Each structure stands twice: as structure tokens, then as C-alpha cells.
Amino acid sequence: MEELKGIERTPQVIAAEILAIKNQTRKILLASAIEVGRRLVEAKALIPHGEWLQWLEKSVGYSNRTAANLMRIYEVYGQKQEGLSNSQPVANLSYSQALILLGLPDAERERFIQEVDIENMSKRQLEKAVQERLETLEQDNQAK
Description:
Shape: flat
Number of helices: 6
Oligomer: single chain
Strand content: under 5%
Distance between the termini: 61 Å
Number of strands: 0
């Protein structure tokens, strides 16, 4: 706390610090998930057919579902993450939000991220918003 000398410690200052740490942690978790997914994709290509599930459990302690989620996060967000600035919406996603958004088609996901205030939504609110968007897309497709 040496660097904080001279700054009045108010609840507002503390809240701002907490939010900054929370935002930084969110970015680190998604970036880490992408990197783990990248390595899982690489490992899966090297492991003989039929040995993947055993390798997952024995070597990294992941279930097939967890590994599949991480690989999908890498495939969908990995290349986008490499050149992201802090202002780009995908850079501000949490791991949970990134997973939920995988339920949307690629083109719609990009639009949804731009249109919806995801950062201020709870997991439940985001799940509901994604479900509503999927229902709207389905209705639009049926109307065509």
C-alpha cells in the first residue's frame, strides 16, 4: 500500500480499486482460457484416436465437456483476442459470458456484443437475453 500514501482512503476510492482489479481479473481469466483452449486443440491433434478422454483426465484433470468449452472459446475468441485493445467489447468478457455467448451464431454474436450492455448484466440476465435473441432469430427465419 506504499503507493497509496497521500490518497484519501474513502469507500469510493476503495470501490474504484476493487472494480479495476475485478476488470483486470476478468480479462486475465478469458485470456488464460483461450490459451488453455489453444493448447488443448494442439494436444488433441497429437493424441492417437480413442485416447483423448483418458489423456484429459490423467494429464490435466479436465472432463470432456470442460475441454470442449475451452477449445471452443479458443476457436471463437482466440484470434480476436490477439489484437484486442481495452476498448473492444470482446476484451471485456468474462469466461462465463464468453461461454454463454457461444450459443449465438457467429454473425449474431458480434452484433449482440455491440448492442447489449453485457458488462452490467448478471449471468442469469445474459442467459435470458441470449435465449430471447435466439427466439427472435427463429421467428425471423420462420417468417421468411
